[in-house]
Each structure stands twice: as structure tokens, then as C-alpha cells.
Amino acid sequence: MKKFLSLLLTLSCVFAFTIPAFAAENTSDSSFENDVIFAEVSDGSIQEYSASNIIVMTPDQVLELGTEIPSIVETSKMVYINGEIDAASLSSCGIDVTVTSVNHNEQYNPNVGTALVYQNGEILLNEISILAENPISIMSERSNKLVYDSIETALNTDYSDPQGVLRYPDGYQHRANKSATVYDTSNNNIGSISFVDYFYEKGQWTDGYLFDTVCRATFAPKNGYKCTKFYVSLGVNDSNFPAHEIIDQTRIGSNGSSTTHSLELSGSKEGISGGGSTSWSYDVDAQDVQNAFSETDVKTWRFSPKSAANGDAWMEEPGIRSVSTSKTNCFTRTTLKCPFTTIFDIELKENTLDYSIYFTYGS
After folding, report:
1. Are residues 181 and 203 in the same domain?
2. pLDDT digit string (tens) for 186-210?
3. Residues 6+ apart with CB under 8 A from 85
4. pLDDT at residue 8 tops 50
5. Residue 73 belongs to what domain range?
6. Fewer CB within 10 Å of terminal CB in the chain, N or C?
């Protein structure tokens, strides 16, 4: 789809010009700020709110409200927890947490909060982090700007399920959402990078557990920036976990115009009971794709838009099928890389999300 964006630039003089765009434009704005309220907790409840409100809480307030949290999430637009909170604390409040994660880039990508969103009858968790060369300077005081930046990133996350795959109990059993606000060297918010991993348990046998991972990766620069290249890697390349084996991966072809990719995982291994296929589809604009599958423990897809445009967001959905030798530590390591580029084609520092997501089979 062609769109036209007007951009005002200042060089030696002020002038305006129009850039054609195609993918999904990142249309974030600050209009949501009027819906944000900061929780005031008294006698186990909070002040009045409406379904359009985004409620900001501290981790201590979440614990104080306890089992009231699910009801608040279900009847508001979002609950944003400003600060780190562990899975055990969320579980004690009645929030179902079935996955755990390890952040391999915590120095430049620390977590700052968690968004709770109610959708399709379940509460979804989205861990919000920041990507910056000096994150300590951004986190030195938890200002309202950081809160609003994080909420904006959470609102821009696509929480919908993959197209064409049946939902739980016939579809995914576990999911993990990770979103990061990207900052430049002057600590300006220039966009976001995020992924949602969907895990599908496909069968088990005496020595292993078969599962599929479908990853929705989103690269969303703000106006004034664009994506000229980005990578997604899915692997079992983490020595902290028991042995895993990748037995299938999706091959994504280059396309010269907008298209719909129909993908499937159906690889099998001798001795497994169950299996079957997992299939889904997604829409994408013209791009070149390199499938890098030479390594046995990690598969990488490298994407280059045919015509990267200002402010366009890109979404990709690769997948792998894995076998784990452990029931309690089934995992996938998900890595996203993307250097945002200015409209003057100056490539900025590469942004990296790098997490191992693990879960207990059958939980």
C-alpha cells in the first residue's frame, strides 16, 4: 500500500517534501496520555477508573491489591507496572505466568516495567525494556517521560494471534511478549522493537518433548527513521539449558511486491508420538530475504525492504520446530537485530533484543 508522508526538515533553510511509504506506518502519538492515571491505593482498592484508562502502579501497589489485579486489568485498557516484578509475585495476584526468560543483553536492554492487557478472555503480559547506549541515564529517575514512553511501546505491540493457527487448547500453550523502546544517543525515543513468541506443544516420547515456536517480530521506527535491514534468529544455542535439537524451520522467500507468506512446521523425529503440523500466514511488502540455516542450533532470517520508507513498521513471523530432552526447561532463544537509519541514510547503532524463553512442558 502506498502512502504519502510529509516531513518538515531544517537544513540551511526550511523546506518540505513527501516520501512514499508502504508497510505499516508507525502512527504513535501522545493522545493516550489523557487516559493515564497513577494508582492511589487505599483499603485494598484504587480510585475510580473507566475502561479507557491506563492505570500505572508500582510493584508494591500490585502486591497490596493482590487478587484484585485481574479484575482491574479486565475492566481497564491496560495496567502498567512501573518497575520490575517477578513471576512469583504476579502468580500470587492470580496472574497466570507459564514462561520465564533470561536476558542476554541486559547491560544495554534493562527491563523497566510490565504491561498487563486483557484480550480474548486472558491476561497477557508484556515486559517493557529500553534499548540505549547509556540506559542508566534514562533510568536514573523514573520520570513520567519514561513511563509514557514505555506505555506507548506497549500500546504499539500487536497482541493478536498468528493468522491461521487455532488458539489454546488446540493452539499455543505458552506465549512471551518482549518490547523495547529505542533511544538515540541524546535519549530521544525513536521507536520500538518487539517480539511475541508462541509455543505449541506437539508431542512427547520417552526421551524428548516436541514443540514449535512461532515468533512475531516487529521493528517500528518513528517518523524521521526507517528500517533498511533487520534480522531474526531462533535457536537452541544456550549452554545453560539441557540439550535441544532443531528439526524444522520455515523458509521465507524474497518477494518483489506485497504478498502473503503461508508457512508451516511439520518436521518429525523417529519415536515421537503426536506431532502434526503448525501452519500460519502473514502479509508483508516487497523485500529481499536471506535464509541462513547452516548452523544446526540456530536459524537466522535476514530481511531487507525493497524500498525502506520513513516511519514504516515491519513485521515478520518465522518459526522453528525443536525437540527438548528436558520437560522443565524447554526453551527457544530469540534474537532481534536492527539498526535504525535516519532519513539521510545514516545508520545508527544496532539494536539487539536477545532472550532465552523457557517453560515446563504440559504446565
Report:
1. yes
2. 999 999 999 999 999 998 877 789 9
3. 59, 62, 114
4. no
5. 29-155
6. N
